[in-house]
Amino acid sequence: MAADPKVIVMGEDVGTLGGVFRVTDGLQREFGEARVIDTPLAESAIVGTAIGLAMRGYRPVCEIQFDGFVYPAFDQIVSQLAKLHYRSAGRIRLPVTIRIPFGGGIGAVEHHSESPEAYFCHTAGLKVVACSNPHDAHHMIQQAIRSDDPVIFLEPKRRYWEKALVDPRPLPDLVTGSVDAVDAAGAAVGLHRSVVVRAGTDATLVGYGPTVRTCLDAAEVSAADDDRSLEVIDLRSLSPLDLGPVLESVRRTGRLVVVHEAPSNVSVSAEVAARVTEAAFYSLEAPVLRVTGFDTPYPPARIEDHYLPDVDRILDAVDRSFAF
Known about the structure:
The chain has 11 helices and 12 strands. By secondary structure, it is of the alpha/beta class. Helix 1 links the parallel strand 1 and strand 2. It is globular, with a radius of gyration of 20 Å.
């Protein structure tokens, strides 16, 4: 916001309150009410207004307060935001970033713990990304805002309180160049690139958003208890998918388990499984297995631990893979 006066933030309670998760805390005091806008409780109006602002040269950042609140804006997102660039033969650009806290694990009430990513991944014209750690949260949001494409930016709400050292220095050409961001080791990482976050040799775990930490925990337990070396890959971008590192890993390990909180039916994991099977069939020693939420509405908070993929369910899938 300091670098570009055309970047504005808008959403329910993002100003005075700083957002329900305090992500925008202090921004209104620093940049004023004209750039950090507390909107009415009307998601369709928030996104519709952002579309108009983007057409006039602004870069709006919309906050959808909770994942389950995005559906009133669904028509604006899929019918207008995703299509205007194509419909106008490239004359109209819509650099709109829609931030959505997503996933479960915080003991919330109904409509406050959803995983709606598959809806948006299915929509041509939208980019969909999910950060999993403080480093990516810092750099990926900058990349998304500077992108000329509309970006659905998924923030795992149960990871909001994780902390880590982050290099705050601005990075060159955060969208279009070959160096979009850097990982912890200083390697170049684009907004739509997947990364290996733990090297391994025996099986591959793939996750995104909140489940990346769960996969890392599972890999730690597997190494200690079973002497298995599990490679963990963070997809980071769900649309477009970067499966290069996944395919390279599977060709070495021969086994793949895909993990996410969303239901398994017609999901990101289904697409990953299909593409990997098509491209690396002869490298697989077992079918691609999935550990996901169940094909039910998100359950009441007291039983959400039974719904969410955990270390035990992931390791059970790894055991089943080795049983083939």
